[in-house]
């Protein structure tokens, strides 16, 4: 009989159950962080868009209701519904691409078809697709299908491929990129070989520059603008690089401690920052509260991702652990990309700041993910399966 490695969360003969240490559900850490981020976002949006701030509060409340509902399904029901949600996500992603769909239902924005108008808010199928991918991979990897070999290692990427391809067609390169980190993180936790993961990452870094010619014109221009900015060349500051230039100006205007509300509002309006309530909201945070505010927002984001990691570490159930890992990877990646493009170290890709940027679908899906992890921490599955166990 081959030796089996002790599962994550096993500490010298005593396992920490899904409820966490001393019965504490680590999901509460995520809830506290999500509430904090939601409040930050609503306040910052109110500086320039008071009406949207009120709607954002409503979205947050809807999200909390969705999170409460997401706590109800047990492990078995979540596992069984994973593939159904995956198929529904593909259908919705195809739907937004169907030519001739009325504009009142699928409203193109900046040449992209990503949203379905639900009346209350515009629903973005890619938000649910991220959650669907995490659930499907958690089901797939709970008893690893020979992921120690290259064939099994690449299987999760083939599962993610249809979602990524459809999102790229919208087009939405930024969101498509978000599907890779959770796959890698979940493979690592499931027991994939580190050398396989390292080899894949290095290969991507080598191949990435070669893909430049096949990018869309506006995507190439954004990359050009980023490198021109690094060289101190401001030729793009009035066209494709305008958004990044204005964002960095506002971040610098915030200094260490920021500005009072009226001054911050005047700065944002006079600099004409595009998407100040959405993609570039971190620039407004830094303008209002300075470096301290930006650091505080990052801390809340890390608290949320860290809470998900603690949830993963505090359970012996592979399915729960993998879900928490995937969601932590998505949230951390979104925060890193959003703040990176705001600070001018990454190209502008349209990635939102979780729970902070304006948007109903992103807010509700974020709270859904929170509720799922919280619910998994409330109950102990009957059959615990070690990630390294026998299939």
Structural commentary:
The chain contains 14 helices and four strands. The longest helix is centred in the last third of the chain and has 33 residues, at 281-313. Mean pLDDT is 85; it is low at 1-21 and 383-391. The strands form two sheets. It has a two-stranded antiparallel ribbon with strand order 1-2. The protein has a two-stranded antiparallel sheet with strand order 3-4. With 391 residues, the chain is mostly helical. Helix 1 (27-48) runs antiparallel to helix 14, helix 4 runs parallel beside helix 7 (180-190) and helix 10 packs across helix 12. The chain is globular, with a radius of gyration of 21 Å.
Give a summary of the structure in a few sentences.
The protein contains 14 helices and four strands.
